Amino acid sequence: MLSLATVLALPVAVSLYFLWTFLSLLVRQARSPLRHLPGPPSTSLFMGNLKELHDQENNGLVARWASSFGRAFVYRGFMGGRRLMLVDPVAVNYVMSRGYDYPKPDFVRDSLASMAAGYEGLLTAEGEMHRKQRKILNQAFSAAQVKSLSPVFWKKANHLRDIWISIVGSPLAYSTPADPLMGLDVPNRPENRDPEDAAPNNRDSSAVTTSCLPNPFASFVPSKSSPTFPLQTGNASIASATSSSAACKIDVLPWLARATLDVIGEAGFGYEFHSLDGAAEHRENQSELAQAFGVIFSTARKFRVMTILQVWFPVLRHFRTENSAMRQAMATMRKIGMELIQQRREPVLAATEQLVADAEKADNIEGDRSGLGRDLLSVLIRSNVAEVPSQRMSINEILCQISTFLAAGHETSSSSLTWTLFALARNPAVQAKLRAELRSLDIPADVVPSSPLIEQIMQLPYLDAVVRESLRLYAPISTTMRVASVDDVIPVSAPLVDRRGQTCEYIRVRRGDIISIPIQALNKSSEAWGADAEAFHPERWMRDSVSTDVDDILTRQGRRAMVQGLWGHMLTFGGGTPVNGNRSCIGYRFALSEIKIFLYVLVRDLGFSIDPNLEIEKKVNVITRPCVKSEPHRGNQMPLSIYRVPVDTHADNETVQ
Ligand code: HEM
C-alpha cells in the first residue's frame, strides 16, 4: 500500500521539475548577451514572433526587420525565448562553417529523428559520428558516381513526360480523383486517426505547419486536389497557340514528388517504389515502403501544442504518442531496410573479397579499390563490415541512412522542379528561349543518352542559368537553425549598435543560444544581388564573350553575393567545412543532375503556363511548397496548364499564355 506521502511526492516532484526547468530557462534567457541586441517586439506571449514569421516567405518580413534592426537582431520564439537572426554575411559564414561548434538544436534533431531519420542518420548525427559518416558517404556522391546515375534520372523523367503527354492527349482518362500520395488514405481511416486531431475529417487544416521545427520528413505533400483535372474554360488561347494539342490543367507538385521518390529509391537503393504508377488504375503496384512513407510524412506534418512544450521541457520528448499506423509504418521501413541490406550483402561482400584477393595476388599492398561499387547501398553495406572503427557503421546507423536519404533526397528536388516549372510558366519568353536551347541537342527520348551527351546537357548555358536562378529565388529549404555549443563571439562585416547605444565589433553568444539563418531572405538580398534581386532573371548568370566564369560575371555585374555557401554564392545547399563540420548538402550534385535532366526531358516537348489570376504563395514546413492563395483548403498544389509544343514551333512564334 502506498503511503499518502508517496502518492503526493510524485505530482510534487513533477511540478518541481517543470518549475525548475521553466525558471532556469527564464534565467538563462535573462542572462543571455542576446538581450542587448535590438529586434521586433514580441506579438504573443506564447508564440513570440513565430506567427508573423510563419508567412515570411510571402511578406518579406526578414528583410524589413533587417532594414529596421540591422544585420543581426533578436526575435522571440516560444514563450518569448530569444533567437538570434543573422543576415550579416560574415556572421553567417562564420556560423555555417563551424558545424560542430554550432550544431542543430536538440528540438530540431528530435523532430527529425522521430520522423524516421533516427538519431544516427547523416542529418541528425553530430560530432565524431557525423564526421565518420560524412567521410564514408562522400564516395557515393562523387561527380563520377552521380554521373553513373544519369540513366535512372533519364528513365524516370521520360516516364513522367509520357504520363503527362497521355493526360494532355486524353484528360478524362485521368480524371478520377486520386490521392496524389499514391492513393493513400490510411491516415484518414477512423481507426488510424490521431487522437490529438481536433477535426478528424479535416485533417490537414487542423494542423498548423511551421518553419520553426525543421522537418524534412514532413515533406510528402498531400495536396487535397486530384493531381489532374480537366482543362477549365478560359484557357482556349493555350490550345490555339499549340496547334497540335489541347492543354490540360495538372497539379504538377504530387507528380514531381512521385517521380523524385522513384528516382532516389532506384538510384540509391535499387528499390522500386512504383509511385509514378500510383495513379488510380495502378494502385496495386504501389510499394509497401511508399505507403509507409505516406503515413510517416502525413503524420509528421502536424504541429501541436505538445510539440512546443517538448522544446521547453525535454522530458516530454519521451512521451511522444504515435498512433498505430505510424508505428506500423516505422516497422515497415525498418523491415524493408533490412531486406534491402540482406539482398545486396552477399554480392557486395563477395565482390569486395575478390578485389582484395586480386590485389594480394598482384602484390598490391595498397589494394586497388577502384573496382568497388560506389552506389549508396554498397557503400553502406561495406561500411558495416569495415575493420577500422573509424570506417564502420552499425546496422542501426545504416537503417537510419536509408530513411534519411529517401526523405532528404526527393522532396527537395521535387520542390525545386515544381518552382522552376512555375517560374517558366510565369515567364514565357524565358521558357521559349530555354526550349530553343534544349532542342539544339537532338537526343531521342527512347534511347538512354551516352555520357558525353549527358555532359552536353549539363553544360547547356541557359539551362544552367535557369536552374541557378530558380534555386536562388525558390530555395527548397528556406531557413536553417543552429545552437551555440560554446560561449563565443561571432564576427560581423560592420560594427553593430546595440539596444544600449553601444557599438559592437562582434556578437557575443552564450552556450545554448539559438540562431536562425534565413537562407531564402539572404538569397534575395538586394544588397548582394542588386535592385532586381526579387526578379526571376536567369540572364544574370549567363556566360558572355568576356568570361565563362559565373563568379567573374557576377562580380562585374556588381552582384557578387557575400555569402559563401556550398554552391553559387548561395546557401541553397547550405555550407560548412570538413574540419569543423561540413553540414552542407551531400546530395547537391545528385540534385543538380536530376533537375537538369528532368527539365531537359519535360520542357523540350511540353509547354507550361499558369492562369495569370492565380496567386501562388509559398508555404514552409521545412520544405518550401506552393499553395494557391484563394484555395488554402486544397493544401499544397501547383496547378499548371500543360500542352505539347510541336517540334516545328520556333521560339519567336511561341505564344504561350
Ligand atoms: C534541390 C535539392 C536540394 C536542396 C536545395 C538541398 C538542400 C540542403 C541543405 C540546405 C542542407 C543543409 C541543411 C542544414 O544544414 O540545416 C542539406 C543537407 C542534406 N542533404 Fe540536401 N538538398 C537537396 C537535395 C538533396 C538530395 C538529392 C540528397 C540525397 C540524395 C540530399 C541529402 C542531404 C543530406 C543527407 C543532408 C545532411 C548532410 C549533413 O548534415 O552532413 N539533399 N540539403
TrEMBL record:
Give cofactor(s), names only: heme
InterPro entries linked: Cyt_P450 (IPR001128), Cyt_P450_E_grp-IV (IPR002403), Cyt_P450_sf (IPR036396), Cytochrome_P450_monoxygenase (IPR050121)
Establish whether keyword Iron is in the entry: yes
Identify the species of origin.
Answer: Trametes coccinea (strain BRFM310) (Pycnoporus coccineus)
Pfam entry (one) = p450
For this protein, what is any one GO molecular function term? Answer: iron ion binding
Domain of life, per UniProt, equals Eukaryota
Q: What's the protein name?
A: Cytochrome P450
**Could you tell me the keywords of this UniProt record?**
Heme, Iron, Membrane, Metal-binding, Monooxygenase, Oxidoreductase, Transmembrane, Transmembrane helix
Record pathway: Secondary metabolite biosynthesis
Question: Which positions are annotated as binding heme?
Answer: C585
Protein family: Belongs to the cytochrome P450 family.
Determine if Transmembrane is one of this entry's keywords: yes
User: Transmembrane ranges?
Assistant: 6-27
Renumbered residue ranges of the record's region Disordered? 183-207
